[in-house]
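The freezer alarm interrupted the setup, so I double-checked each line after restarting. Inputs confirmed:
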Amino acid sequence: MQTNDTITTQLNHRTVRQFTDQPLDKETLTTLYEVARRTATSQYLQQFSLIHVTDLAKKRRFASICRQPAIAENGDLFIFVADLRRNQQIRRQNGADDGRLHTMDLYLQGMADATLALQNMYVAAESLGLGGVILGSIRNDLKAVTELLDLPAMVIPVLGLRLGVPAEDHEQKPRLPQKLLVMENTYNDVLDEQAYQEFDRTLATYYAERNANARQENFTSLIAGENSTLNEKVTKRDDVLEVTHAQGLLWK
Amino acid sequence: MQTNDTITTQLNHRTVRQFTDQPLDKETLTTLYEVARRTATSQYLQQFSLIHVTDLAKKRRFASICRQPAIAENGDLFIFVADLRRNQQIRRQNGADDGRLHTMDLYLQGMADATLALQNMYVAAESLGLGGVILGSIRNDLKAVTELLDLPAMVIPVLGLRLGVPAEDHEQKPRLPQKLLVMENTYNDVLDEQAYQEFDRTLATYYAERNANARQENFTSLIAGENSTLNEKVTKRDDVLEVTHAQGLLWK
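Predicted 3D structure, all chains:
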């Protein structure tokens, strides 16, 4: 393995959900925003924005929506949005129609811009000794999030990010081995039972031995067990297409 | 601004499309895959894979699809896919139905996993002195890409990434200022005409003065001009929903 400070940071990645009371200072925020701003962007369209949520009442609402009480208690909260509104405004200001902005293609470009920028900023934060957690759980009530941030049409929340000075230190959680994630030239559709069995054992050991919240679980039970999040049920998260359409996106 | 090696790398980011003949060595590949593998993943579902395309005939097809001839000539090519197939296999192997795997919610989780992992690996590569370019242009013919990589149902290409030892060095391209990208608590829907005019001037100067391919252009003309990529037209990229559905994804 090659190594340097950046890669060491990346390989040490773990989720942090509890932070000290110390909010990010202005210099750190400016640095992180600058990194986000410098991220690669699809066709140079720059279709993302990020909203720093500092209002305590709003943070409490996010804590409830994301079912993560600590959101209201510590850490800085950022919501990354796919933002096709800016380019719509520029087009309208210049007498152009909305063109391709309502297509799925353009929607996906905005989603990618926001996600790439978030990851880039997350790495920068970790390189400064900060910790964080990504919040896909904003989709637990996407409509509420959209209203909470006063998002106009053509803007949709993608992911949240909490950052702060870590106040907890977890063991690193195992991940599927490279041989299941990386392929060459063609998709490998053969189920490698042995690799999954090994991974089940690794993960079971991790769950049994970890300091906080030890339990009996493995990857197969997480994915296919009776309490799997993947089991059939309709949730508020299934509003996502409706909310996306209501925001004017992904029409065609 | 805070700084360290990681942030310096990130702030120096620029697109590189021409590489030397030297392919990535095995140690570098292993390191980059390890970084991708360590990336945050939505609900621990680990729904991405990456396919290293080394076959020259396939690279030629990508060069044609992406309209980037250099793809066939130099650099390593990786296609990141949202991979819900693994979890489908595990569920079927264990007698469970497909559960929520066909929902938009799960589709978006796979898209996010793939995009986050790509950006993380891209930063690691740049920290090693490599350069790269993200290929959204695989969506120029998503169906062809799907066939080229023999992707089964529940797997969809997200973005490509080319990496290599840079054989070109460009000026850094300007980006929209922080004040247009970063907001606090609420979306700012007021068109800041002065900020856009300033940015138009900055970008026009960049285009006029850059070494390669100098031209007369600004942000407004890119977004709203008569040759804007955003102008109304139906392209092969508008197959994306059809191909996504055909792959079994985003049904409900």
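Quick read of the result. The radius of gyration of chain A is 20 Å.
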